[in-house]
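Handoff note, outgoing to incoming analyst
You'll be picking up this chain. Sequence as last confirmed:
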Amino acid sequence: MNRGATFAIYRGDSLLLMLGGMLVSIGLIAIASASIEYSDFHFNNPWHHTERHALYLLAGLTAGGLAYLLPLETLQRLSPWMLFFAFALLILVLMPGIGREVNGAQRWLPLGPITVQPSEIAKLALLLYAAGYLVRQQEAVRHHWGALARLIVILAVVALLLLLEPDFGATAIVIGMVVGMMFLAGARLLYVLAMLVAVAIVFAGLILNAPYRLQRLTAYQDPWADPFGSGFQLIQSLIAFGQGEWLGVGLGNSVQKLFYL
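Most recent structure output, in case you need it:
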């Protein structure tokens, strides 16, 4: 529902803009509340993470504003090049000596004082490319498997590169995103269900073949079996909910943020 323009340059949904602003503000407050002690201990500045998050927000809002000003035709025209750029980054991050490895996962590219996660760029690039492709091939997508197969091949390459990092979460997100877009574009339900079944089988195999992934799932059944290992995060979350109940303990008064998480 379009309620008019909030600013002269904005012609979108003002309610959506307001809700987005509220979410961004709540996120900034939550970051500030949760990171004060940690930032003070490690950086001698209680607002270190808050300031950094605010800078990232400013950069993101600026980029979002510029993207909003671009015509859709321009985004569609640029989307293949953006996808190619994302492919290059996903390959680059896997190269020894270039990508940064943390806890067994090589997902980050160091760029001076900041690090970039190519999977995040790949999500956006694939989203734009898939949207443009589904618009251009709308009739074919609705009636022919081949039109879907071409997009599935691109999705499979992105998913494979993400799994090589490995980044199982990002893989699940991009697959769910593209399959959902195919469904909304009018692809036959039988094709969508077939893709979901195939994805479920592949994911089940990946989980069973990686003990740490399986452990993350089984930890929910009995986190107290390994309270200082796989169940630690869940137990701390349960304690936090138990202390705060429905209304919480008050902004800044959380105990679990005091180096428990």
